[in-house]
Design a protein that fits this description.
single chain, 26% helix
């Protein structure tokens, strides 16, 4: 079957190890199901995999991709939850969870095999392309906002780095849930898009906000860290799920954190129950993922190059 896969790992030049071509079809295993992939979406996690983060040379070649929507073995329309435990059947209380391609072959292929536990029904209201955007970036944003930040309708949130998959999701979900959302971006066009998606205002990075906010959604890292801390009200919460600009900020702002009793919460992906809630929320509220571009799988390298350059707004979707 045709697939996009990693053949080598290179931190400085991740796309060096990206290959497109034939790979063996997945083999059946007890308790697992094979999904015929109709759509799969790109995530920064796929670039980090090519850099060698979360995976070793012993796992290569590895089919990339952790998000997918498609048809199960009975022809049902399904969405894949990509967080898998060590046993491959749910995530037990003492298990270390992993994302699909850290241990098992991924979704950038005609078929993928996953534990039957990891498959959820796709709402009829969502297309395959839309549903494929939800299990990583959108689920991450959902958990950041509603589980780890604990914000409620009427609360205010700053989303750093509008345009990225998680940031875009946070703007749309936050607006739909009745939050007062602000956003930042270096790009004027992305700031305009953020407002069109529901942000009250969008600013250049580091700009002064109209008021301090209840929570900050942080995925940029070092470049925006100090600004994120300074934008929080007393007792506010910064939730971080990524550090695309690096993980070593020049100023940690420790004094401000303890003096204002701020909370800094790490967040990674989300649970199967949260994904089920997210799917229902999108179906009921008419919320739809922002899709930058849909490409055939044989043009996956173009999508990777655009994502690596930061030249996307929303999600890049691949269709086998």
């Amino acid at each position: 079957m045709f697939a996009a896969y990693a053949t080598s790992l290179d931190f400085a030049n991740p796309l060096k190890g990206l290959e497109l071509g034939e790979r063996p079809a997945p083999e059946a295993r007890p308790g697992w199901t094979t999904v015929t992939v109709k759509a799969a979406s790109l995530n920064h996690h796929d670039l980090w995999t090519l850099r060698g983060v979360g995976i070793g040379e012993d796992k290569l070649p590895m089919i990339l991709g952790c998000d997918a929507a498609g048809l199960d073995e009975d022809g049902n329309e399904v969405v894949v939850h990509s967080v898998i435990g060590q046993t491959g059947h749910g995530v037990g209380p003492r298990e270390t969870p992993s994302i699909l391609t850290e241990r098992y072959q991924g979704t950038f292929a005609e078929q993928v095999t996953v534990p039957a536990w990891n498959v959820l029904p796709k709402p009829a209201e969502l297309t395959f392309e839309e549903a494929a955007c939800l299990p990583t970036a959108w689920l991450t944003a959902y958990r950041m906002l509603f589980t780890n930040a604990g914000v409620r309708p009427g609360d205010s949130v700053l989303v750093q780095g509008a345009g990225g998959g998680v940031a875009t999701a946070a703007i749309v979900l936050g607006s739909a849930a009745g939050l007062r959302v602000y956003a930042t971006s270096r790009d004027a066009a992305k700031r305009r898009r953020a407002v069109e998606l529901g942000a009250l205002e969008a600013f250049e990075p580091g700009a002064r906000l109209p008021h301090r906010v209840d929570a900050v959604v942080e995925t940029v890292g070092a470049a925006t860290w100090s600004h994120s801390i300074k934008c929080l009200r007393r007792g506010g919460t910064l939730v971080i799920s990524g550090a695309t600009s690096g993980d070593k900020p020049e100023h940690a702002e420790l004094t401000r954190i303890f003096f204002l009793e701020l909370k800094v919460v790490g967040s990674t992906m989300g649970t199967k129950d949260e994904l089920e809630d997210l799917l229902s929320f999108c179906a009921a509220k008419g919320v739809r993922p922002v899709i930058d571009e849909v490409l055939p799988l044989d043009r996956a390298r173009e999508g990777f190059e655009r994502m690596a350059a930061g030249d996307v707004f929303g999600k890049v979707v691949l269709r086998p």
